[in-house]
Amino acid sequence: MLELLHIENIAVIEEADIQFHAGFNALTGETGAGKSIVIDAMGAVLGGRTSRELIRTGAEKAFVSAEFSHVPAGLPGLEETGVAPDEDGNLLLQREISGDGKNTCRANGRPITVAQLRRIGGELLNIHGQHDGQQLLDEELHGAYLDRFGRTEKTLVAYQKEYGTMTELKVQIKALKMDEAEKARRVDSLRFQIGELERAELVPGEEEDLAARRNILRNGEKYIGALSGADYCLSGDDERGGAVSQLREAEEAMSAVRNLGDDLAGLYKRLEELRCEAYDLAEIIRDKRAEFDFSPAELDAVESRSDQLYRLKKKYGATVEDCLAYLDKCRAELDAIETADDTLILLEQKLKKAEKAALAAGAELTHVRKEAAKALERRIQSELRDLDMNKVRFAIEFVEKEPALDGCDTIRFLMSANVGEDLRPIAKIASGGELARIMLALKNVLAEQESIGTLVFDEVDTGVSGRAAQKVAEKLAQVSRRKQVLCVTHLPQLAAMADTHFSVEKGEQGGRTYTKVILLDRERRKAELARITGGSKVTEALLESAGELLDEAEAYRKSI
User: Fold this and answer.
1) SS3 (DSSP) at 108
2) 249-294: per-residue pLDDT in tens?
3) Does the global pTM surpass 0.70?
4) Which residue intervals of 101-219 are DSSP H helices?
């Protein structure tokens, strides 16, 4: 559960520490005091979307931390990030939001991304916002709610696998079923491209060899001149000896004294090695010169081949290797078109089997969903009775449709608000208060299926009053015996039912607006309940009534 929420520089809250307790926690305050800012801070530390506008005016950054206790070690989000609760089961989430839009997130001191923070936060706390009831109006979400309740993930994944196979086969068949004119045009185009590439007789790596040879041929005179000059220096000519003969003479001169000492022997040895190396170099240079056969015709041929490769690369790929890959692709496509009739027969046979498998998996998914729907209808109906909606009927409708990624049925939630009326889509007949209570019932049922330990309700009482408000308060009290409940409310019935009551108060100091969160004792709770009930005029009668409301709420809490 959420033990401590620490807030710094979030909107009008400069700094606040809210020590939440087990059970039912209520937050009340004047409109605009900052109650929703507390919820925004919770959303931020759980990885929700934020903006720099959330940072308090004049501050460079905002900071929120949330300390949770009794956190299970095996939560998927924790395992994925390598984060674990400490030995006492505590987990500290932190998020710092800078004015430049950068975020720094940590879990138990370990840096994590915002996405990872969102993954972890979603397994610890669920926020039911003021407008979440409107989600019931979106019928596309009804199937997701049912799947979540029925835990149909494995059956849904099995169906989606078969559906994916069927869809892929349909795509392949559609690609092969082109009209004859289009097929003829494509075949002509492929044959032309294949012929052009095959006639070119491309060789991998030939670009580099051509470039090197062209460079030499373009500089033929310089090439021959350099080699000839080096050969003359090393080997000489008929009239004059080169470096090799000079080194031989030096070697012969030293041979007479090489036995007179080790140093002279060493000098002789070095001369011998130098003469051998010079001789080898002379031979290599002479061979290079002999190998080179410059002809304008060869240069023209190299230039022509280089130009041909350039034109082909502009059409078929950046390199010769890319052109060859494109050639293989064209051959494969041409072969596929020419053998399309045979391939179509095989694919259509596979498609029949895939369709049969997808329909069977879809039927199994529908069966599992209908079983879950019966259980969900019973649970929602029970919850609605607890919320003073005894005459409301709730049902889940299945309408068969063409197989799609989400199954073979359209799923809709239906209700009848009054006795004798037909079941109709929720969007067409539910009032704001009814939507709020149905959504509360759904949230409660889903929460029972999940490991989330804390439920946050931001003004769940919208559109609710009187007896219905009392029923909502009792329902939240019941839920708080299994989960920690945090509730922002304007209703005295809900605030009185809480085990712990906080007041969010706004004031001014030094020309700035400040918001603080105060834990209320019994006397201050009476005053706050009287204010909620009667506005600015707090009379003795209202205070006495508030006290009675607290006594009744305490008695109810003890009874559950």
Assistant:
1) coil
2) 788 888 878 778 888 888 888 888 888 888 888 888 887 776 666 6
3) no
4) 114-121, 142-150, 153-176, 180-200, 206-218
Pairing of strands 407-416, 424-425: antiparallel
Q: For 397-404, what is the mean pLDDT? A: 93
Instruction: Compute how many other C-beta atoms are within 10 angstroms of the C-beta atom of residue 203.
Output: 11
Give φ, ψ of 329 to 5 degrees: -65, -45
Rounded CA-CA distance 241/251 in Å is: 15
Cα torsion 201, 202, 205, 210: sign = positive
The answer to whether the CB of 243 falls within 8 A of the CB of 249 is: no
- Residue 448 CA, chain-centre distance (Å), reads 27
Which residue stretches of 15-152 are H helix?
A: 35-45, 76-81, 114-121, 142-150
Of 408, 387, 478, 375, the C-alpha closest to 151 is 375
- Looking at residue 450, the DSSP 8-state letter turns out to be S
Taking only the tens place, the pLDDT of each residue in 44-99 is 999 888 888 888 888 889 999 999 999 887 788 888 888 888 888 899 999 999 98
Q: For residue 124, give the nearest of 455, 486, 460, 499 by alpha carbon.
A: 455
Residue 369: C-alpha distances to residues 143, 284, 357, 407 (Å): 9, 84, 18, 10
Can you tell me which residue has the tokens 């494969």?
332
Reference 445, options 130, 60, 138, 151; nearest CA is 151
The CA–CA distances, whole Å, from 552 to 191, 224, 408 equal 89, 111, 50
Distance CA 168, CA 174 (A): 10
